[in-house]
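idk why but the lab printer keeps eating my pages so im just putting this in chat instead. protein + flavin-adenine dinucleotide:
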Amino acid sequence: PVPTGPALKFVEEFITNNSIAIFSKSWCPWCSKAKEVFNSHGLKYGVIELDLDENGANIQQALKYISGQKTVPNIYINNRHIGGYSELYPIFETGVLDDVCSGGQIDFEYDLVIIGGGSGGLAAAREASGFGKKVALCDFVVPSPLGTKWGLGGTCVNVGCIPKKLMHRASQIRNDMSDALDFGWEFNKEGVAHNWEKMVTQVQSYIKSLNFGYRKMLMENNVKYFNAFGSFVDKHTLKLKTDTTESIISARNFIIATGGRPKYPDIPGAKQFCITSDDLFSMKHRPGKVLVVGASYVALECAGFLNGLGYDTSVMVRSILLRGFDQQMAEKIEEHMISCGVKFIKNTVPTSFKKNDKTGAITTLGETNGKKTFSGAFDTILLAVGREACTAKLNLEGIGVKIHPTSKRIIVDEKERTSVPTIFAIGDVADEKPELTPVAIQAGKLLAMRLYNMSTQLMDYKNVPTSVFTPCEYGCVGFTEAEAITKHGEAKIDVYHQEFAYLEGVITEKAPKSYAKLIVLKEEKDELVIGAHIFCPNAGEIIQGFALGIRMGAKKKDFDDLVGIHPTVAEVFTTLTITKSSGKSAGATGC
Ligand code: FAD
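predcted complex ->
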């Protein structure tokens, strides 16, 4: 029924006279939340508490007639009916509240456009489209200086985790074959050879199937895919450029998920003659004698599998190995790689690369503290000196998105918001976040859930487990020893540790000594475990499970109370009794 009396006029006037009008009930938690949203933006609003107003019931009746909504809060902005808290929330969360309040445009061609089709971008696209949003994604691979290109899926799939792990496996098979002889298998070892070209073909064909799978996934989820390079025109407009075309699209929100690419040192011959991880996994010819420059996990993993596949491999290191990782574990990796035949050229940086056109060999000169100390010829130089974020050509400065002056990565808050409230950044391109595939995926998924599904869950960047896939793997979660000491002080921490021989290795006598340690806060009841580290075969598989315990706040006593699975490597974490502070030896013992 059409309401009668003054209520209708009152409601109409209240909505007209207040640019933000809230019809509320004083006890209603959603009404309080709505007011908090406006307060947090310093926006003034008019409010009617219907339960406190003697005419409240009539006003609510009139309001229902005008807006079609019976519940509170019932919100109007600039005479436009917004709805309740669940309609206000996405306006707030997607960063367009100020635009709505100042009468700016909020409806665009797309709800969301994602720049970058790697781990993070694809996860965000799938999740956002699942909430019924109109989503587009653009992805474009700028060829490496040597011309290597690849398909949809980003670094992990094409030039990162996937080919790396498969080649790591290929090199491990050589060890398995050598162990096989000790376990009684008989075959002619001399007749065994590795075919690099076959391995690359197999790996690349698997990658192509993944590229196809991602395109299909986008199609099935109604995500519009542009194989084009994106750069901002303004905060709601993106230019899409292919080799031959240029177009423009607009969106309410953008997620930047452009990842990173390998850095090149600024020295003669680096871009002409050297490869990076962008080129290695699809390289058509055998690497031959290799120099890996760098000491990151990418450098050591590649050096490990190249050496394992039978290529003479040296690693040139400027200072320490695996910066940011636990340095005791880094030493164990180095010792083992040396025992496998990898040569380390320490405290040295390359100064020039020059190719001999007749032999194809690349002469590398290097220096230590400004003095020429190194000269060597190699068939392949793999540069692994770090990665730089893909931010340079996005016109971020032009639209006010702040980047870190040194890292060039995008500065984001705990909600992955950049300095422009409608633009977000996730994955490797976001500053100070672990550069790992599952981190990018999780951040993308949670961001979409916050934007479009009223979720308040933030990405938890603490206790992210990871693994280094060197010939003997290293898995870790939580604090390194150095970080634990810096954060809590040496007196407050202790380290339980054990060196051990894993059973499958004892017959061959070539197996590395494994090692595990738990870092604990000893003053906490039952000793809170704040770091777990293990150096052993399949360390990644082991640490994944224990990471759950540490994330859930496991104490050392929980590890002790856990019954081990015998005989496994992982059971070592259930039997650690020797602390570093005791001074007792943690040397390998029996079974
Ligand atoms: P990416 O996957 O890099 O995707 C970004 C995409 O955006 C790319 O396709 C890029 O071409 C595209 N792009 C860039 N600029 C534009 C633009 N302007 N317009 C359109 N498209 C653009 N992580 C692990 O967790 N485990 C591992 O074992 C592991 N191993 C690795 C091994 C190597 C050799 C490397 C290099 C990395 C490895 N990583 C590993 C890291 C992992 O690959 C990255 O953390 C992850 O891929 C980051 O995902 P992302 O979505 O942020 O970016």
